[in-house]
Amino acid sequence: MRLTLNISRFDPQTDANPAPQAYPVDWERHETVLDLLIRARQQDPSLAFRRSCRSGICGSCAVQIGDRSRLACQTLVREVAADGDILSIGPLRGFRQLRDLVADMDPFFAALNRVVPWVITLPDHAGLVSPEDAARIESPATCILCGVCDAELPPAGSATPAALVKNLRLAVDPRDALGAQRLKLAGLTAAGMRTFRELLPSLCPKGIKLPVVGE
Amino acid sequence: MLFHDVVIVGGGLTGLMAACEAPPGLDVALFSKIYPTRSHSGAAQGGFNAALGEDDSVEAHIFDTVKGGDYLGDQDAVEVLCSEGPEVIRSLDRMGVPWSRRPDGRPAQRSLGGAGFPRACYAADISGHVVLHTLYERALAAGVRLYPEWHLVEILIEEGALAGLLLYHLATGRLEVVRCRVALLAAGGYGRIFQKTTNGHSNTGDGTAVAYRAGAVLADMEFVQFHPTTLTGSNILISEAARGEGGYLRNAAGERFMDRYAPQKMELAPRDVVSRSIFQEIKEGRGLDGGSVNLDLTHLGREKILRQLPQITELAHRYAAVDPVREPIPIEPAQHYSMGGIRVNLDCETTIPGLLAAGETANVSVHGANRLGGNSLLETVVFGRRAGRHLGKAAAGRPLPPPPRASLADALGRWQANFSAGPRHPDDSAAAIRDALNRTMTDKVGVFRTGEELGEAMAELAALRTRYDALRLSPGERPFNTELIEHLELGCLLELGEITAGAAFRRTESRGAHYRLDHPHRDDARWLHHTLARRGADGRAVYEAGPVSITRFPPQERGY
Ligand SMILES: Cc1cc2nc3c(=O)[nH]c(=O)nc-3n(C[C@H](O)[C@H](O)[C@H](O)COP(=O)(O)OP(=O)(O)OC[C@H]3O[C@@H](n4cnc5c(N)ncnc54)[C@H](O)[C@@H]3O)c2cc1C
Ligand code: SF4
Ligand code: FES
Questions:
Q1: Contact between residue B201 and residue B290 where contact means Cβ atoms under 8 Å apart
Q2: B227 Cα: distance to centroid of ligand 2 (angstroms)
Q3: CA–CA distances in Å: residue B115 to residues A208, B41, B373, B377, B554
Q4: pLDDT at B559
Q5: From ligand 3's centre to the CA of B472, what distance in Å?
Q6: Strand, coil or helix: what is B95?
Q7: Is the pLDDT of residue B423 over 70?
Q8: Closest CA in chain A for residue B36
């Protein structure tokens, strides 16, 4: 099968604006969008994008595919296109485009600092965590900091979406000195939190289900 | 020009642990070619070994590790690994690692291959991920200066000692000199020399290759681990945890064939044994179409599979279109881990003054000829911590070297030689050379080796090197010049591929993961030593033997 990738190209040293470039590529049923990007780069080594693990765990390859942001390595081509289609691919929506599919992730990572993104370990904590508490941490701790939620969702209170996920993961950790008080750091209403919790799983590549905290 | 007292290259578990454990107040900067949370440590699934259980002991962990490594591991280093393990796991717990838990609240443990006990602390099947993210959080808490997306190009040496580092900054496209008193390399493994590998795209062994070019000694490069269970085709890992939780290996006839090869440990024999057994089944015609066997989890039941192995379920579903709850997963062995690396002592010091190394990039030789599941993650945090703690002393003992001159001029000359304003090599490409390298390594330097094929591989790799040297890139300092990055990475892969093949050719015995069909037995009289490799004056590797530390366990026959 064959389709055309319409990839947003931009080189800050030569281009005034980003412009799409078409790459016709062959594909097979089991392939991912990342496989096709790698094929396009074989045609044109100047095409820049990030990737590392190719198995949905490192968070490098988040880009806009068609109408929304996804992980290229986790998106099977057949989920987003059919034979002969044109598939447009761009950098994460709303992020500064540094080059081609490479988005500026510095502000994304910097925004985590807003929520004191580490466990402030209670000095007298004995180091035991019940399986029930561990289960509450589990889903938000799968966050791979890929940026898809920041690209797709508006800020939740004063925190960016990914920072809010980190904040909630820490808020349910019994070792943490701030615990549920962390919600204040996010400056979010109960209604805002509910909406966010409902929207996240379908967009997030890890399908993160947020724990209910202090509502 | 930048300068810091201490520079760490690599933001995986090793580099982050070192940064977190460096003495407070020390000026530490961490450079990484990808954002630290993208490091391949995050892909590790199975767990971290540590003798925490009542029925387990440090002594037993040491013995399993030494035996698993076919007696090539340095027993003084293994002792450090296993005895510091429990304390490091407890300290990770205080840092906030979300381990899976036992009913009493302690970290849960599971069995991995080659161990006598459930010894691996885990978090479902995303163990590496959760610890990587926790250490990243701690590095933020400690105020470590992070330089993400900076690519190490060369180590600058003056008068035989570290004088600085040369790094390419992706965002600006600029080359920078970084001066420091001491540097720690924690740049990971080099699985990408092989076509079939569980490793991510960024595992190109840059740290190992660059240190070698700078004069560091490498050790045991012929020992490459092939993991028995990776998804056929994509080679995405299906962790040993799947067998630790009770999964079976079956051939096309549905037989649990491991009873022929390792009747006691069965599926949980060490990886070298299991990988060879799988290939033997396939060779004797009992494989599935396309050269696979089946990993069968169906008898574990839906609930256990989804609770303990959620990522694996998802990976099998997405990348192999298989539902492990209902059907077996077709798997094949693939490269997984590099036992070889930069030779270091127990303080993680290389043979170059001022340069340290730890983690998969290094060889302190805890794994010997074959690593046990769960021991590498343990190595990253135990030796990452040791390196970090040693950095203060190492930096205090070394004034900031003067700005590099001659070495810098040489390095810039080599840098310029990558580019040409004229036409590129018309009918060759980095992608084509890399593909040929990958195929040669997987076909001729794989699980079963012969002198003849290794000799062929060496000739093929030398020819690829000549082709590589003729490649030219278009000039210009461009941001995110990923073509340039892949070009540099390919140079490292070729270098390490040649040394791997050369060291494997030289070792005419079979030990651990190194299996020679033409020399099928271990030969302690001639080969109970490390293979040390140094770059000779003509640019080719010079090999010699190095002693193995044997403290408590004299070599025995290795049966499972
Ligand atoms: C799929 C998979 C599963 C595994 N599961 C287990 C397991 O369950 N248990 C176990 O014990 N072991 C496991 N291992 C092995 C273990 O994960 C690795 O050996 C270990 O994580 C390596 O850690 P590291 O810190 O040395 O390197 P990495 O985590 O690979 O980090 C390397 C770092 O170096 C940086 N770097 C590399 N080159 C450059 C350069 N040129 N310039 C700047 N920075 C550079 C990278 O950006 C990265 O930050 C697994 C390995 C794989 C591939
Ligand atoms: S919450 Fe999900 S979408 Fe957002 S950064 Fe984490 S993994 Fe990505
Ligand atoms: S390449 Fe790692 S998440 Fe896609």
A1: no
A2: 30
A3: 34, 21, 8, 15, 19
A4: 81
A5: 29
A6: helix
A7: no
A8: A58
How many Å separate Cα A139 from the centre of its chain?
15
User: pLDDT tier at B114 (50, 70, 90 boundaries)?
Assistant: confident
* In contact, B347 and B309? CB cutoff 8 Å: no
> Which whole number is the average pLDDT over B214-218?
98
Q: Which CATH architecture has domain A106-203?
A: Orthogonal Bundle (1.10)
Residue A78 is predicted with a pLDDT of 96
Ligand 1 lined by B164 (C-beta under 6 Å): no
Q: In this structure, what are the phi and psi dihedrals at residue B67, rounded to the nearest 5 degrees?
A: -65, -45
At residue B422 the predicted structure's pLDDT band, cuts being 50, 70 and 90, is low
Q: What CATH number has the domain spanning B2-223+339-396? A: 3.50.50.60
User: CA B467 → CA B172, B434, B488, distances in Å?
Assistant: 29, 11, 14
Q: Find which of A70, A92, A118 to mutate to test the B interface (most B CBs within 10 Å of its CB).
A: A118
Mean pLDDT within A89-104 = 97
Structure confidence by residue, pLDDT tens digits, B67-92: 999 999 999 999 999 999 999 999 99
Residue A183 has pLDDT above 90, yes or no: no
**pLDDT score for B15:** 98
Summary mean pLDDT of chain B = 95
Using a pLDDT cut of 90, give the percent of chain B over it. 92
Which of A45, A58, A119 faces B483 most closely, judged by CB atoms? A45
Q: Cα(A194)–Cα(A18) distance, rounded to whole angstroms? A: 37
- The alpha carbon of residue B542 and the mean position of all alpha carbons in its chain are separated, in whole angstroms, by 23
Tokens of residue B355, six digits: 């340069």
Can you say whether residue A94 is alpha, beta or left, with left for phi > 0 and alpha for psi between -120 and 50 degrees? Answer: left
The domain spans of chain B are 2-223+339-396, 228-335, 420-536
User: Rounded to whole angstroms, what are the CA distances from B182 to B28, B155, B358?
Assistant: 10, 12, 14
- Nearest-angstrom CA–CA distance, B64 and B49: 11
Overall fold of domain A2-103: Ubiquitin-like (UB roll) (3.10.20)
Q: Is B379 helix (H, G, I), strand (E, B) or coil?
A: helix
pLDDT in tens, A50-83: 999 999 999 999 999 999 999 999 999 999 999 9
Active site residue B414: no
Q: Is B331 helix (H, G, I), strand (E, B) or coil?
A: strand
> Which of B77, B66, B100 has its CA nearest to residue B379?
B77
Per-residue model confidence (pLDDT) at position B99: 97
The matching CATH number, chosen from 3.90.700.10, 2.30.40.10, 3.40.190.10, 3.40.640.10, for B228-335 is 3.90.700.10
CATH 3.10.20.30 in chain A, residues? 2-103
Give the closest of A47, A56, A99 to B479, CB-based. A99
**Main-chain dihedrals φ then ψ at residue B60, nearest 5 degrees:** -65, -40
- Residue that has been written with the tokens 């997984």 in this structure: B336
Nearest to B534 by CA among B342, B338, B363, B337: B342
| Both structure tokens of B127 | 């163990």
- What gap in Å lies between CA B516 and CA B518, rounded to an integer? 5
3-state SS, residue B265? coil
With 0.95 as the threshold, say if the pTM is over it: yes
| Ligand 1 contact, B151 CB (< 6 A) | yes
CA–centroid distance, residue A207 to ligand 2 (Å):
8
Architecture of domain B420-536: Up-down Bundle (1.20)
